[in-house]
Design goal:
Elements lengths: L6 E3 L5 E3 L2 E2 H8 L3 E5 H18 L4 E6 L6 H9 L3 E4 L2 H9 L7 E3 L6 H9 L4 E4 L2 H14 L3 E8 L21 E2 L4 H10 L4 E7 L10 H21 L5 E3 L17 H19 L5 E4 L3 H4 L3 E13 L3 E6 L8 H5 L5 E3 L9 E6 L8 E8 L7 E5 L19 E6 L2 E6 L4 H5 L5
Parallel strand pairs: 4-20, 5-6, 5-13, 6-7, 7-8, 8-9, 9-10, 9-11, 11-12, 12-13, 15-17
Antiparallel strand pairs: 1-2, 2-3, 4-14, 14-15, 14-19, 16-19, 17-18, 20-21
Helix pairs in contact: 2-9, 5-6, 7-8, 8-9
Bound molecules: ligand LLP.
The site of ligand LLP has 23 residues, from helix 10 and helix 11.
Length: 433
């Protein structure tokens, strides 16, 4: 199928996820239900690692961006597949720690880390801090000093590169809340300051230009600028930086019209650019890192819903309402994101028209997708929304006091609940009576 290797249609016309019938999963675990094809996630991890090893002569590492899907189980899968991790909050660091993740392979991000989060991450043995700003640099240096450690750091740099993606997920340009700017001299200045601090050691440079990017050129442009910075750090500060971390952002297919580059083409272009820049600037080949989130789990996720009603407004549109919505999938309301959907009970049937899939939240904008070609839907059908592995569970809320769905991981013929469904008691458990 177009969106993931793990998807197919069975002889009795049901959607299959790996070797599991989606309709049977919905019956067994209830809906809404997040399904994670763990084999697909593992394949994605392996493809990233293998492609990097094949295309790049120097050292390299892929870090799983935890924010895309942060659970104990997914952290363990990423660790087993040899990936490092990016964490962006105390909660993500804590999850990785409790999962038994090798903490020396963790990069701690964030533009406003609190002193408590910094202390927690240092106590947990987080390998690298990606420092965002000057106040944080001083804070990290002071807390490391109190703990008697020298913390390895990289700075988050805005390389001044624009890319074509949603405004909300662009981060490489100068007008961004993340990081220090290259073109104003802010980046050089903060490195100079760090060089004089006793409890931090700069190990490399970091940038992340945005998310869901289909073009390779902006990444190459970022490499030119970041490696020029590495050379400048060497020449003006005598500072040797060995890591070039280019962040995440590799785009995936959400719509039949989406045409992302092949991972191998992307990595090859990036690796070649790094190599030629290293030669030109007489730099050793850096340890090349990426932080893919969406590319690791996006197409491994499917959300299953039960259709509650079908409302046709003549001449206007048909609403197919399901038992979830913006609380479990906020990507439409936030970004107008597109997601493919199909009726899992009749997965191979030809569409009979286009519908709008509506959620059950008390909000008109609570849609899951518009203009979705579907066969005629009816109450009781199982509706599958595809490519929901990244930024769905991790951005889910309890809006309208909806309990968050369960998540089931599928591996071969095995299946396992990795996040249990919230109960009404969970919902009131933090309220003080
Ligand atoms: N590294 C850093 C520093 C990041 O900020 C991000 C994503 C990533 C890596 C992973 O990016 P990816 O490979 O997944 O594109 N909620 C939005 C996406 C926000 C991305 C935030 N940062 C969405 O649903 O599209």
């Amino acid at each position: 199928m177009l969106y993931a290797e793990c998807l197919s249609v069975s002889a009795d016309n049901h959607l299959m996820i790996g070797s599991h019938d989606a309709v049977a999963l919905a019956k067994e675990y209830g809906t809404p239900l997040y399904v994670l094809d763990e084999d697909q996630m593992r394949r994605n991890c392996r493809e990233y690692r293998q492609t990097l090893a094949d295309c790049y002569a120097g050292e390299s590492m892929a870090l799983f961006a935890s924010k895309a899907l942060c659970t104990l189980h997914t952290a363990r899968v990423a660790a087993e597949e040899g990936l490092g991790a990016d964490a962006v909050s105390g909660g993500e660091v804590y999850t990785l720690l409790k999962a038994g993740f090798p903490m020396e392979k963790v990069f701690f991000h964030g533009n406003c880390k609190t002193p408590e989060e910094i202390a927690l991450a240092m106590d947990a043995g987080v390998g690298f801090f990606v420092v965002d700003n000057r106040e944080e640099l001083d804070r990290v240096n002071a807390i490391a000093g109190e703990k008697g450690v020298v913390q390895k750091i990289l700075f988050r740099v805005k390389p001044g590169v624009d890319c074509h993606t949603h405004e909300y997920i662009k981060t490489g340009q100068i007008d961004s809340k993340f990081g220090v700017a290259l073109e104003t001299g802010e980046a050089l200045e903060i490195h100079r300051r760090a060089a004089g601090l006793p409890n931090v050691r700069v190990e490399g440079v970091h940038c992340h230009i945005g998310s869901q990017i289909f073009e390779i050129e902006p990444f190459c442009e970022a490499i030119h600028r970041m490696m020029a910075l590495m050379a400048e750090l060497r020449d003006s500060l005598g500072m040797r930086t060995r890591i070039l971390n280019l962040g995440g952002g590799f785009g995936i297919r959400y719509d039949a019209k989406d045409d992302p580059p092949l991972l191998a083409d992307y990595i090859r272009r990036v690796a070649d650019t790094v190599k030629s820049e290293a030669e030109r600037l007489a730099l050793p080949l850096p340890c090349l890192m990426f932080e893919p989130g969406r590319a690791i789990v996006g197409n491994a996720g499917v959300t299953l819903y039960t259709v509650g009603s079908v409302k046709t407004i003549p001449g206007i549109r048909t609403y197919v309402a399901v038992d979830g919505g913006m609380a479990d999938n906020p990507r439409y309301i936030l970004y107008g994101a597109k997601h493919p959907a199909l009726i899992a009970d009749r997965a191979g049937d030809a569409p009979e028209g286009s519908v709008t899939i509506a959620g059950k939240c008390c909000e008109s904008g609570d849609l899951i997708a518009e203009d979705v070609p579907l066969p005629r839907a009816k109450a009781g059908d199982i509706l599958a929304v595809l490519v929901t592995g990244a930024y769905h569970y991790s951005m889910a809320s309890n809006y309208n006091r909806l309990p968050r769905p369960a998540m089931v991981a599928l591996r071969g013929n095995e299946k396992k609940v990795i996040v249990r469904r919230e109960t009404y008691d969970d919902l009131i458990s933090h309220d003080v009576p």
